[in-house]
Amino acid sequence: MRPRYYTCHCQSGWKLDADKRTCIKDETPFLMVVRESVIFGIPLDPADPSNNAMAPVSGISQGQDIDFDDQQQLIFWVQNLRSIWQVKTSGANRSEFAPAAFIGSPAGLAFDWISRIMYYTNPTVNTIEVIRVDGDQHYRKTLITSTGKPEGAGQPFGIALDPARGKLFWTDKGSDNGVPPKVGSANMDGGNAVNLYTGNLANIGFIATDISTMKLYWGVAGSGLIECGTMDGVSRVVLVSGLSHPWGLTVYQSHLYYTDLDYEVIERVDKVTGANTLVMRSGMAGLRALKVHARDASAGTTNACSSNNGGCPHLCLPKPGNQKTCACTTGFVPSQDASRCELYDSFAIVSTTKYIRGFHINSSDHSEAMVPVGGTSNIKGTLDLHIESGFVYWADNSTSSSNKGIRRAKIDGGGYSTVLNSGVGKGGIHGLAVDWVAGMKPPNFPVMHPLSLQIQADLQAQGAKTSKPHYVVFPL
């Protein structure tokens, strides 16, 4: 027998249409919340105690910052301080957008929804970088680095944008080379970097913009404050005090929302006065970032890059005054007529314990000539290059035996893959050479000389305690 009465329900983030039988996307603004192991959405209505304003994203690892692409209905987040992930707002198609091997250890995210590029901070290498979201090739470029001047990047953390005006803003924990803890700003092509606010900013956290009033908001864990300042660096006030560890924060309409890691709460205050504190959620351990899933109509919808990528071959970076800079991805330079981007003809590849980088050897600034390979793996200075295919090969001696092996990636940032990840042994790989004469063999890998792997395995089997061997292959 069939029941005579029934009620239809929709998944989180969706609602019933007028016919009460069809589910449609719920476009009501809501608060995206990041905890260490889950991302979920809560309504902006304090009277609604539910946590199902979006399909929850569970099983994440050490979640950090978050942003969204409303055009493609995507959510981006940082996890493990090393990679950027994405998922549809419906919860489908979860994937790693930018692997740690290419972007190092990102902390803060900011999506330019007009130019369709993602900005992120990289505190471990003291940079602010950008990556293109659309297309198969995610072009990327380093915009701001540690220059040895106070205006450069120290340990950049939070980041926020005003894409219609072509400005970016970031918080910086400072460094030992002259960069103070600060709130900084720059054009969105990385130019004209200035320090807006310094002093009493120990352990500064994330930053949020209120584009309608041209104000910035940031948390200072060292003093338990949330402060507010104008985008021109002129006026600075304390908005909220008496907190323990303010961290994530976001502004929407007349309210500021923020998390306190120690008190385990999400709270709301008046964005102008800091008064009328309201607890939105409490007893939530592991709170991190949060952001309202909505676009402010006053933020603008166009800039010099909003149509056809601004006519640029790789990256279009907006600037104030409806201007733009066409930039090539790391490792490429503009052609003479600026109509295309070309590879550097010669450069040096250098490896450290954590990164592999290429530097142009014929320019005065020794600019980066390849997309850096980084992340949290332990690179022991063992690498080789197959020039014809454009691949760099390196030994990954991670502390986890399951991650040890040989990896490869193209100098333009594509083609990241694992060549070998079994039978490596506890000591890892300490010698590697590509046989460039034998060339490409199925399945399209240059011949990897086995001598170093075999000798290292023999040494481990014998319990030998010798210096680590290195090898060079001379093909006949």
UniProtKB/TrEMBL annotation:
Q: Where are the LDL-receptor class B repeats?
A: 390-438
**Tagged with keyword Transmembrane helix:** no
Q: Which SUPFAM superfamilies match?
A: EGF/Laminin, YWTD domain
> Which of UniProt's keywords are assigned here?
Disulfide bond, EGF-like domain, Glycoprotein, Lipoprotein, Receptor, Repeat, Signal
Q: Coiled coil located at which positions? A: none
Q: Which SMART domains match?
A: LY
Q: What is this protein called?
A: Low-density lipoprotein receptor-related protein 2
**Name of the gene:** LRP2_5
